[in-house]
Amino acid sequence: MLGILLAQYPIVLIHGFDSSAHYMSHMKQVIEKEMPQTTVINCEIGNGEWDSIFMEVAQQVNLLAECITKHNVTSRGYIGVGHNQGAYLMRALLEQHNHEMAPMVRFISLSGPQGGFFCGVKSECQGQYLPKFVQRFMFYMQYKGFTQSNLGPSQYWRNPYKLKSYTKKARSLPLLDNIRDYDPQRKANFMSVDKIVLFGGSTDEVITPWQSAFFGTWKAGTDAEVQLYHERDEYKQDTFGLKSMVEQNRVFFEETELHHGDYKYNDDFIVNRLVPYLRTD
């Protein structure tokens, strides 16, 4: 799949957690104004807000795949853009399905929890990412079968105090990081795009830790100290291809000063920082 991109590809947008396609409409309109000849598809997971919370990741990814493949214009390739949990879903789609469906040619993550999400011991849970009742339930029941089946975020809830349970029982992120049930196809798929663009920043106030947008995590045994992407064993061992992509200069770490929700509505960001990465012609 990797090669020189000779034409402008369609763009697929996917919303985040507790959200719907409606909240990506402004971004879609701005992109269409800047790139009037480009098809922009705004996907929705099930009924949006409810299913983005209470549907497991695999089902959400399947619905995203259905949205993409029903548009024939994507058959030769598309640029995947996700915000928040949507960026995580787009990564999951890339790793698990890019060899068997319309191919993603470029992956853009807007403050997505690529290194997982955790808060509540030493770190404060900020910004309403998780409704309070979901937060409390998940904190105590995070790796139980019922929780894993019914709360999408539990599948990438990386508890630094319970990493053995996380690695064994979390149903999504340990697979994407290829630390459980290693699959070389996932790594090949991750590396099949021409580039990966990651946006995030310390003013996010929602993703915890904010460095998760750049594949960072909490260090083992604490949610007060961050382990940057290049310090992780997964990176050093190149389990899912991030190290290879970085060494090939195909990963772009773009720090911003935006609040988490601003990525969808800030025209200056969309026009001057996002759109240049959307152009392939």
Account of the protein in words:
The protein has one domain: Alpha/Beta hydrolase fold, catalytic domain (Rossmann fold). 35% of the residues lie in helices and 12% in strands. It is built from 12 helices and 8 strands. Helix 1 packs across helix 12 (267-278) and helix 4 (85-97) crosses helix 9 (184-190). It is globular, with a radius of gyration of 17 Å. The two termini are 17 Å apart.
Short description:
The chain is of the alpha/beta class. The chain has twelve helices and eight strands.
Short descriptors:
single chain, 281 residues, alpha/beta, Rossmann fold, 6-stranded parallel β-sheet, two-stranded antiparallel ribbon, globular
Q: Give the rounded overall mean pLDDT.
A: 95
Q: What does the largest sheet look like?
A: 6 strands, parallel
User: How far apart lie the N and C ends?
Assistant: 17 Å
Helix content: 25-40%
SS summary, helix count: 12
Write the CATH homologous superfamily.
Alpha/Beta hydrolase fold, catalytic domain
CATH class: Alpha Beta
List low-confidence stretches: none
**Which structural class should the secondary elements be placed in?**
alpha/beta
Number of domains: 1
Shape: globular
Main sheet strand line-up = 2-1-3-4-5-8
Strand content: 5-15%
Q: How many strand segments? A: 8
Which CATH architecture would you pick? 3-Layer(aba) Sandwich
Secondary-structure element string: EHEHHEHEHHHHHEEEHHEH
Reported by name, the CATH topology is Rossmann fold
- Rg is 17 Å
